[in-house]
Structure formats: structure tokens, C-alpha cells
Amino acid sequence: MSDILKKLRDEECRKVFDQLDEDGDGKITTADLRASLKSAGLDPDDEDIKDIFPDLVNDKHGTVDFKEFQARTQIQVSESTEDGPAKNIFKKFDEDGDGFLTKSELRKALENLISELSDDVFDGIMEVADINKDGNVDFARFNMIVKGMATSGD
After folding, report:
1. Rounded to an integer, what distance in angstroms lies between the CA atom of residue 86 and that of residue 142?
2. What tens digit of pLDDT does each residue of 51-95 get?
3. Which residue among 44, 67, 89, 138 is least packed, with the fewest CB closer than 10 Å?
């Protein structure tokens, strides 16, 4: 990540943290988070708070400082964007939108990623990907294939 992008991400993270830190003490508590959400017109219960920020509820002090917040939000950003390209390819080739790639849809998707895809290579991939042998591959299996191709190219 470029230094400029990192600085922008850090600044944005700081702004969000400061907004959530209702009392300005440098720590976010469940009370801070609840007050921020209420000021946004929401009425969160304890389960909502736990879903939004599990680290806050599980912390023995019941607080999260800026470094913890920054680390957690960066993990969440990376987790949410990590599968983006594969998900976009999957959706593009899932012609009927059923959440699965048929054998022909998978072949089209892989031909888009691999310049020379032989029948033997494709059959091997299909053998591994189609674990229940119904002729369909879900996103999780497709993503494993794509990630495997990316790491084998290193």
C-alpha cells in the first residue's frame, strides 16, 4: 500500500474513532458505541453491539483504544476486500445467478483467467472443485481455485 493511501486510511480511521469516542477519553466503550449509534437514529441492543464490535465486548476492560480499533478495522477491510476480484469474476460467469457455476460456466471463467486451459487441466480442477459431484461449484470452492492459481504463479 502506498504511503499516501496508508496515511489517508489512517486519517479516516482516526476520524471514525474520534466520532465513536463520545467522551473523548481515547477509548471506545460499549456506552460510547451505543451513544454514537443512538445519535445516528439507531437503537442498538447488546447483541447489536456485540455483532458490530465483538472485540469491545470481549475485552477484559470493556474498552478499545485507537491502536486496537485501527488494527481491527484494517483486518475487517482486508477481509471484506480480499475476495473482491474472485467474487466479481464468479458473479460475471454465474449466468443464471443461482450462486453456483455449472461446468460450462466454470470453464468460461477459468478460460478468462488462464490463457491455455487444456481439457485435462480443466477436468482436474473440476474433479477437485466439484466435491459433491453435482456438476456445480460454489463461490468458496471457486475462490480456493483462484487463490491456488495466484499462489502457484509466485
Report:
1. 8
2. 777 766 565 677 888 888 777 766 444 444 455 677 888 888 888
3. 67
Quote the CA–CA distance of 66 and 90 in Å, as a whole number: 36
* 49 pLDDT more than 50: yes
Q: Is pTM beyond 0.85 here?
A: no
Q: In the numeric block, which cell numbers belong to residue 105?
A: 460456466
**Cell numbers that stand for 98 in this block:** 443461482
Q: How far is CA 133 from the centre of its chain?
A: 28
pLDDT of residue 79: 45
Which amino acid does the sequence have at 31? A
Within 8 A by CB and 6+ apart from 19, the residues are 36
**How many C-beta neighbours within 10 Å does residue 10 have?**
13
Reading the block at residue 52, the C-alpha cell is: 458490530
Question: What are the structural domains of the chain?
Answer: 3-82 (1.10.238.10), 84-152 (1.10.238.10)
Q: Which residues contact 20 (CB under 8 A, 6 or more apart)?
A: 28, 32, 33, 36, 69
